[in-house]
Amino acid sequence: EVQLVESGGVVVQPGGSLRLSCAASGFIFDDYIMHWVRQPPGKGLEWISLISWDSSITYYADSVKGRFTISRDNSKNSLYLQMNSLRTEDTALYYCAKGFLSTYIDYWGQGTLVTVSS
Amino acid sequence: EIVMTQSPATLSVSPGERATLSCRASQSVSSSLAWYQQKPGQAPRLLIYGASTKATGIPARFSGSGSGTEFTLTISSLQSEDFAVYYCQQYNNWPPLTFGGGTKVEIK
Fold first, then answer.
1. N or C: which end of chain A has fewer CB within 10 A?
2. B34 contacts A105? CB cut-off 8 A
3. CA separation for the pair B49, A17 (Å, rounded)
4. How close A75 gets to chain B, by Cα (Å)?
5. In sequence order, what are the residues at sequence separation of 6 or more whose Cβ sits closer than 8 angstroms to the Cβ of residue A61?
6. Considering only CB atoms, which chain B residues are within 8 Å of A42?
7. A86 pLDDT more than 90
8. Looking at the complex, does the CB of residue B3 fall below 8 Å from at least one CB of chain A?
9. pLDDT digit of tens for each residue in chain B (108 aa)?
10. Nearest-by-Cβ selection for A44 from B49, B95, B101
């Protein structure tokens, strides 16, 4: 059974930094693209980043480019999101998600809540 | 960036009735379209990929159709567990992967 468990979400002040983690199990982690997707409270889904199986390719949404960094450690079956220069509009539930080949997302974690507030 | 537009924003349907949800892409995405279901307090779940292929374990009452820029998700006979928010997402031209704004299916 595929499991994705996010952690690291907290309340942080504007301008602060945070690192989210995602522990993956139930599949061969280093075979798959991984994503981060976020959802502000009461709103829709926004894709924010992906990383290839070997970390050679990373992409970001314009809204986070230059501030967020995605990474992975295949030896630990873990995905990360380093978030810097946080803004109030970054407040959201952050989901770790598994990609199917280079296409859609087939599994989602339960999310970790990041609140940016003074 | 491909913009995905879903309609209606809210759909009120009685249990047992048919629900038809629409998703439009700002340019062709071929058949590279997925549908997700999200219930309150839960993560999204993959329903449909390739515009019309059901994911593992998805009931037969769910079906997807369309290609190019116009897509439809149909729930043939709504069950109580189907009341949720549904999102479409294109994966033909990325980055970025883009989602529609969602359609909330509520009990009439």
1. N
2. yes
3. 36
4. 26
5. A46, A47, A48, A49, B95, B96
6. none
7. yes
8. no
9. 999 999 999 999 999 999 999 999 999 999 999 999 999 999 999 999 999 999 999 999 999 999 999 999 999 999 999 999 999 999 999 899 999 999 999 998
10. B101
- Assess contact for A36 and A48: CB atoms under 8 A: yes
A1-25 pLDDT tens trace: 999 999 999 999 999 999 999 999 9
As beta bridge partners, residue A47 has: A37
Q: DSSP characters for chain A?
A: --EEEEE---EE-TT--EEEEEEEESS-GGGS-EEEEEE-TTS--EEEEEE-TTSS-EEE-TTTTTTEEEEEEGGGTEEEEEE-S--GGG-EEEEEEEE-TTS-EEEE---EEEEE--
Tokens 């930094």: give the residue.
A17
Q: What is the token pair recorded at B24?
A: 């439009």
Q: How confident is the model at residue A101 (pLDDT cuts 50, 70, 90)?
A: confident
- As a whole number, the mean pLDDT across chain A is 96
Question: Hey, is the C-beta of B71 within 8 angstroms of any chain A C-beta?
Answer: no
The helix/strand/coil state of B94 is coil
Identify the residue whose tokens are 């803004």.
Answer: A87
Q: Check: CB of residue A68 under 8 Å from CB of residue A7.
A: no
**Which two structure tokens, joined as six digits, stand for B20?**
């038809």
User: A117 near A18, Cβ under 8 Å?
Assistant: no
